[in-house]
Amino acid sequence: MDRRNFLKTAAATTIMTSLSKKFAHAADSATVPTRVLGHTGEKISMVGLGGYHLGMQSDEQESIRIIRTGLDRGITFLDNCWDYNNGQSEIRMGKALRDGYRQRAFLMTKIDGRTKQAATQQLEESLRRLQTDHIDLLQFHEVIRDTDPDRIFAKGGGMEAVLEAKKQGKVRYIGFTGHKSPDIHLKMLETAFAHKFTFDAVQMPLNVMDAHYNSFEKKVLPVLVKHNIGVLGMKPLGDKIILNSKTATPVECLHYAMNLPTSVVITGCDSLDILHQAIQAATSFKPMASTEVSTLPAKAAPAVAKGEFEQYKTTQNFDGTYHNPQWLG
Question: Average of pLDDT values for 10-27?
Answer without folding.
Answer: 38
